[in-house]
């Protein structure tokens, strides 16, 4: 079997270290060592640890951003209920997998601020999914599938906030089990539609 390309090894190592020790403590030196390359080689492929983090999110986690972008580009495609259910499903999985990576940043305020500033310069950050979902809902509003008076930003915040909450809230429960993602996504979409949808769509069976 041929060895993996260096870029793939670096992404794999970064993903594993970010999951196990957290983003704040996963240094580029440790990532390079785990990938079997030099730190200089790592910087041939990635400009910074923040750049590497963004690529891990984009290439190793559920693909929430491309989904939102493709839906916003083609409003009216599919059913609103089906689209929102898939968005909620992907978002729930995305936050479930990304929360353990980024959580360690919140223990170090100065590091968090430096990291978020770098993400903003890269056009990324935790605010982007809300902006992208808001853009999709506004596109659906323009074609008449979302009520003209609906607050699309609030709707986006509600849906994604619930998905993010699912990622960590249930760790405190006795069993530590999260609500099953498919049923959770369908219930969120159905509830949100009750507040923003302009047209009756085929009802979705209750999970």
How would you describe what is shown here?
With 207 residues, the protein is an all-alpha fold. It has 10 helices and no strands. Helix 6 packs across helix 10. The termini are far apart. 29% of the residues are buried.
Strand-helix topology:
Blueprint: H1 6-21, H2 28-35, H3 39-45, H4 49-60, H5 64-73, H6 80-102, H7 109-121, H8 128-142, H9 152-169, H10 181-196
Task: Kindly list the characteristics that best describe this protein.
10 helices; globular; 207 residues; 67% helix; single chain; mainly alpha
Tell me the major beta sheet: none
Helix share of residues?
A: 55-70%
Q: What gap, in angstroms, lies between the N and C termini?
A: 44 Å
How big a fraction of the residues is strand? under 5%
Radius of gyration: 19 Å
Short characterization:
The protein has 207 residues and is an all-alpha fold. It has 10 helices and no strands.
């Amino acid at each position: 079997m041929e060895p993996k390309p260096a870029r793939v090894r670096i992404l794999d190592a970064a993903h594993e270290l970010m999951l196990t020790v957290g983003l704040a403590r996963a240094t580029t030196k440790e990532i390079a060592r785990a990938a079997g390359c030099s730190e200089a080689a790592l910087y041939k492929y990635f400009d910074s640890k923040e750049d590497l983090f963004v690529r891990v999110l984009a290439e190793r986690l559920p693909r929430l951003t491309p989904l939102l972008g493709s839906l916003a580009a083609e409003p009216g495609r599919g059913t609103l209920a089906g689209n929102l259910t898939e968005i909620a499903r992907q978002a729930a999985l995305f936050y479930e997998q990304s929360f353990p990576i980024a959580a360690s940043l919140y223990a170090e305020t100065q590091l968090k601020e430096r990291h978020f500033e770098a993400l903003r310069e890269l056009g990324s950050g935790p605010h982007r999914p809300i902006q992208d979902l808001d853009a999709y809902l506004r596109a659906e509003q323009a074609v008449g599938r979302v009520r003209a008076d609906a607050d699309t930003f609030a709707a986006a915040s509600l849906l994604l906030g619930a998905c993010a909450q699912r990622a960590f809230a249930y760790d405190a429960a006795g069993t530590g089990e999260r609500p099953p993602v498919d049923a959770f996504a369908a219930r969120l979409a159905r509830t949100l539609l009750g507040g923003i949808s302009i047209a009756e769509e085929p009802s979705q069976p209750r999970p």
